[in-house]
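Subject: Protein record for review, amino acid sequence with backbone structure tokens
Why sent: The fold of this protein is of interest and is recorded here as tokens.
Enclosed: The protein record, placed directly beneath this head.
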Amino acid sequence: MVLIGFLFIGAPVLAVLLYTLVQVRQIRQSYQPDGSVFEAGSVKLHYHLLSVPEKGKRAPVLVFLHGASGNAYDMKMAFLDALEGRHSLLFIDRPGLGFSSCGSPGSDLPAGQAEAIAGLLEALEIETAVVVGHSLGSAVTAALGLAAPERVKGLAFLAPVSHAWPGGVNWYYTVAAMPVIGALFCWTLTLPVGGLLAPRAMTNVFLPDPAPQDYADGIRLPLLFRPASFRANARQIAFLKPEIIRQSRSYAKLQQPALVVSGTHDTVVWPSIHCEGLLRDLPNAQLLMLDEAGHMPHHTHTEEIAKALSQLVRRVEDADAVETDGDGAGRPVNIA
């Protein structure tokens, strides 16, 4: 009976584990880091820095933080052509994703990631950072603005996750984040199933626009399905809501010029919760609402956002340009 039980249960699990090991090895051989690496405590951060020396040491640097299930290539693919040469650009793989390591458990939380990234900014001697976060990366953007206001002088939130939402997260993130069971889940199902479901997931996240044909290749999508990366991504998503509730109580401290960007057709995160929450809580926030845009506006409305980011840089360079309502209190302003 024991042998029969192993044949029906153990043998298939062993076969999938061997398949995963082979696939992970192939992914490592196919995709190699092509940026720089900085050790921030327990985390090794992989990043690309494209400087414009003639701008001067104190010129604002645009720092890009990708969302869940992504990596630095997502933001680089969207903004490099539009902004290269106009501003210095820093694209970062958040902990556990892309080619950055997972680090300690605190690195799963926005505050822990902000601490590591603040260390990178200090090491690179970036005195004026304008941090641009997409989706879950927006939660890290806010945390970074709270942790290092002396260095983070501007904030941009693209299709942001910033406030508590009703309900939870998809069940597979909850399972993958569990001790022991989560590791087994990721080592047996992530690679065989993830690749099959990825095309539909990309379609849904880009709606109502189509995903770029070269998107999966451009962001090195298989990197996500490595068990360690998928599990880190799952933990970051599963643990986010309690951290958002705590963090959002401090948003009034974010005095930096801020830009909030969303699409009217975003069905992944709700603008009515997150964008309106940021406009309510941040004293110096402006809104760019993109008609008929979905959750990936940096790919589908790049030029509009690039223009707005350049305007944000000018606001940072000249704080007097921030629009106020006459009594000194910040008022949300549409800039579309």
Summary: The radius of gyration is 20 Å. The beta strands are 36-40, 43-50, 61-65, 88-92, 129-134, 152-158, 258-263, 285-290. The longest strand covers residues 43-50.
